[in-house]
Amino acid sequence: MTTPDERRDTDPATPTDDGVVGRRRVLHVGRDRPIRISTGHRIRHHDGKCSRPHGHNYDIAVTVAGQLTEEGWIADKGDITDVIDEWDHMFLLEEGDPLIEAFESSGDGDAVVVLNHPPTAEVMSALLEERLLSELGSNVTGVDVTVKETGQLCAGVTQ
After folding, report:
1. CA 146/CA 3 separation, integer angstroms
2. Would you say residue 92 has pLDDT above 90?
3. DSSP assignment of 7-68, as one string?
4. Residue 52: which of 99, 106, 15, 8 has the closest Cα?
5. Which of 46, 55, 109, 114 could form a disulfide with 40 if both were Cys (CB 3.0 to 4.6 A apart)?
6. What pLDDT sits at residue 157?
7. Are 20 and 14 spatial neighbours (Cβ–Cβ below 8 Å)?
8. Distance CA 104, CA 98 (A)
């Protein structure tokens, strides 16, 4: 089995005789009409107001690069949105945050996603990229995710 890192570094597949299957393409999901999720978080070690629990309506756009499959796509849009939707109406917290225990003791432990890093837009974009790369087919050679937290803050590789 090919790992996601190996897939990023390989040459594109040789197109079939018809020149379509295996051809390198790019798929944009949410570029013109972003995928919107509502998610809470806090940045524990921030000196300002972001250390308090709060939430955002995040706008997310995904670009997937890879080879066309016999089904005629690089990836199924539904598979992409399913991964992103797992964070919709959830609270993202960094491992070790005392709020995790508070959510669990209140009976809302299933509303928390625990991350190994602070739940910033930058971390969110990187984690979504990793997750999508591991979830999508072996024909996928790259994933870029842009997470727009506010009108002034947008994180990701592509703009």
Report:
1. 23
2. yes
3. HHHSPPPPP-TTS-TT-EEEEEESSSS-EEEEEEE--TT-SSGGGS-EEEEEEEEEEEEEE-
4. 99
5. 55
6. 77
7. no
8. 10
Could you write out the DSSP letters of every residue in 16-28? -TTS-TT-EEEEE
Among candidate residues 28, 46, 89, 117, the one labeled active-site is 89
- Helix (H) / strand (E) element for 105: namely helix 98-105
User: Given pLDDT bands bounded at 50, 70 and 90, which one contains residue 16?
Assistant: low
Q: What is the distance between the alpha carbons of residues 73 and 93, in angstroms, rounded to a whole number? A: 35
Active site (annotated) includes residue 50: yes
Residue 158, pLDDT score: 52
- The arithmetic mean of pLDDT across residues 96-121, rounded, is 96
The active-site residue, picked from 50, 56, 122, 154, is 50
Among residues 41, 94, 129, 149, which one is catalytic?
149
CA atoms within 13 A on the CB side of 91: 20
> Strand 54-67 to strand 35-41: parallel, antiparallel, or no bridges (unpaired)?
antiparallel
Q: CA-to-CA distance for 158 and 26, rounded, in angstroms?
A: 13
Please tell me the distance from the alpha carbon of residue 15 to that of residue 28, in angstroms, as a whole number. 21
